[in-house]
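thread from #wetlab-drylab

HS: before we spend reagent money on co-crystallization trials with iron/sulfur cluster, can we at least see a predicted complex? here's what I'd submit
DV: go for it
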Amino acid sequence: MDANIIKRNELLAQKVIKGLESRNMSGYYASNKEEALKKALELIPEGSSISMGGAMSAHEIGLVEALKEGEYHFIDRDAATDKRAAMLSTYDADYFLSSANAITEDGVMINIDGNANRVSAIAQGPKHVIFIVGMNKVCPDVDSAIKRARNVAAPINAQRFGLSTPCAKTGSCMDCKSPDTICCQFLMTRYSRHEGRIHVILVNDNLGF
Ligand code: SF4
């Protein structure tokens, strides 16, 4: 990566981290995927129960594999035969892994969801939430963050899951009410009342969508 891009991302990450801290959340900067993995594993003690939403970024830094192979209780919803029981156990997990569809320069996170399992667990339930967020998700403000979520993340996710939504066909949001819409719930995480619950690892890389 170009040295000027690295410098810019470091400076921008410090601004985001300050914003997160002003909102009672913790932020960290990782200069690459390996550092991000190391930081995440420092935050999660062995023996913890862990669940996750559809966090591509956690896969991309190798965190999911490390947790499955390590001394942790990983709640694997995809492998579970009783999906509902696995989903409900998420709310009692020690740690929940997520990414963000977008994060503002002053530390507000935007996430949209169809089934709402991800946004509901971010909002309440798991004792800790760890976000893995590539610097490609940083947006200047809430308006641009929502636009990113609807016009970048949602169309790609709709295509990924083979959904029949207008954005899957056009590549941008048409504000649909399609039965397949993944924009049922919008969560704006702007403050945490619970000290030490939310941790955000900003990664100097393009992660997720
Ligand atoms: S509202 Fe519909 S068209 Fe817009 S991003 Fe969501 S699913 Fe796609």
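DV: The chain has a mean pLDDT of 95.
HS: ok that's useful, forwarding to the group
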